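Q: Mind making up any chain with structure tokens?
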Amino acid sequence: MAGSLIVIGVFLSLIATFGVIRLPDVYTRNHAASKSATLGVMSVLLGTFLYFFLTEGHFNSRLILGIGFVFLTSPVAGHLLSRAAYYSGVKLWDKSVQDDLKERKKKFSKR
């Protein structure tokens, strides 16, 4: 169980790496990094926690705190980075279909 969680976490982190390298614009790269890497790191930490808890009976609260910290901070940081990139004028990919913040940006730029 623990080993499979660690392998899944490594696989998700590898997918995040390929996403950051191959995707076309800042927003899709940020999405790949924040989603896959977050799940990958959390899976590795959970697998490590389970390994030590099940084999040695050692309860490590720091791993649980690390999982909670990554769970709370990584998606928020990804969202704020995308928002900052958008409002600083970084263009969307040419083949992007939808721009949900376009009207909101017009509304706030008139102030």
